[in-house]
Amino acid sequence: MAGYRELLRTPGVARIIAAQLTARFPNGMISLVILLHIEGITGSYGAAGVVLAALSIGQAIAGPVTSRWMGRWGMRPVLTLTTAVCAASLSAIAFLVVPVPAYIVLGFLAGASTPPIVAAVRTIYAKMVNSTQLTALYSLDASLQEVIWILAPVLITFIATQAGTVAGLVLVVVVLVAGGAWFILSPEVGRVRIPRSKRSFGTVLTRPPVLIATVVGFLLIGSFAAVEASVVATFEHDGLEAGIVLAVFSVGSLAGGLAFGHLPMGPWALARRLTVVTAGLALTAVWLDVWWIGATLFAAGIGIAPALGTLSAVTTASVKFSDTAEAFGWVGTGQLIGAALGSAVAGFLIDGPGGVTAAYASAAVFCALALLVAVVFVRGLPDLRVRGASPIPDTEPVPTIT
User: Fold this and answer.
1) How far is CA 102 from the centre of its chain?
2) CB count, 10 Å around CB of 261?
3) Cα(383)–Cα(269) distance, rounded to whole angstroms?
């Protein structure tokens, strides 16, 4: 914890962490409140699911694009534009009563205009601390983001059920705009300028560590989505238990990140951390008891924030500074697709003969595949114990007078 205290005493670090967490807080509320809102209007969970799928597709497609735009037009203009469009789209969903296809279009637009806060802040981090502190900062960020997933679903469920889904969507818009403004107006966002990339769009994926981080993130987040579906299906008659168990999962991640996230990251660091997550998830299917599932998910959670911190550090250390935002955009897209696939696979298995036990097993399989990728391609991962996680400097020929 001494290392984290030193990080937070670095000028601007505590402020930018708080601002970006507030700006990202709506991410933990949007899906749930849209599901409740569209189902309440149409009476169909199927229609609500299609709108949510459109939202996810929009986020997945736009992530690398809007992240790369920040190198062309600057972070503040891109973040301001996307925040405004996203807020307008969510407001339209809240107040307009229109056919389902119109909600699908609005959902896609809201997803496509989701502000690229993660790509922006993780690019900024690389310029705020030295290379030896950057890995710890990424782990701290991954740990503290669990606060979003612990508090946001509880808050939005309470608001939506007590005051209505329109009020819930209005709350999302207010937090989106207020948190986005706080982040956009932060001095660090104005001081850090991402150089315009000279490489074509998508070239960053030819860097082996970025591709590995994208694939591992895809599989790892897929396992989390399968866990969430499995827990909800297990305790469907007692929503309190489901919420508590998922909160314990996030608390485990928070604890693991704070306890172990600062440790040096060699090429095998990712595999070791994924081993902890895989082992915990593999045990969940043994006994469908609330205490057992809570304990095993807490154990699995201990490796999550450290693993996510490693993915961020590996990504940054493997590309030029001008490509960091786009690289994080691709990693984020992989995670979004993984979440959609994990939920779909778990849902199919829950309805099948294997039931919820098979769904828990699928979560372990997803994570085991992520572990396999980290082991098989370990030589493609950088050793960050010496050089740190700073991005590769952008260099240009310097003209000389002869």
Assistant:
1) 27
2) 27
3) 9
Yes or no: say if 233 and 356 are a contact pair by the CB < 8 Å rule: yes
Cα–Cα distance list, 63 to 1, 13, 21, 60 (Å)? 33, 24, 18, 6
CB atoms within 10 A of CB 246: 22
Residue with tokens 């915990």: 280
Instruction: Please report how the helices 13-24 and 2-9 are oriented relative to each other, as an axis angle in degrees rounded to 10.
Output: 90
pLDDT at res. 217? 94
Contact 330, 65 (CB under 8 A): no
**Residue 279: HSE in the Cβ half-sphere, 13 Å Cα cutoff:** 9
Query: pTM of the entire structure?
Result: 0.82
Among 176, 353, 161, which residue's Cα sits nearest to residue 243? 161
Q: Do the beta carbons of residue 229 and residue 346 sit within 8 Å?
A: yes
- Helix intervals (H) in 145-289: 146-163, 165-184, 187-191, 208-234, 239-260, 269-284
In this prediction, the residues of the chain whose per-residue pLDDT falls under 70 are: 1-3, 236-240, 387-389, 392, 394-402
* Radius of gyration of the CA atoms of the chain, in A: 21
Residue with tokens 């389902």, as numbered in its chain: 100
Q: Of 212, 210, 193, which is closest to residue 327 (Cα–Cα)?
A: 210
- Residue 174 makes CB contacts below 8 A (sequence gap 6+) with none
pLDDT of residue 402: 40
Burial level of 209, CB count in 10 A (0-12/13-18/19+)?
buried
Cα–Cα distance for residue pair 126/120, rounded to 1 Å: 10
Distance of CA 42 to the CA centre of its chain: 30
Of the candidates 310, 277, 185, 290, the residue with the CA atom closest to the CA atom of residue 242: 290
**392 beta partners:** 320
Residues 113, 298: Cα–Cα separation, whole Å: 34
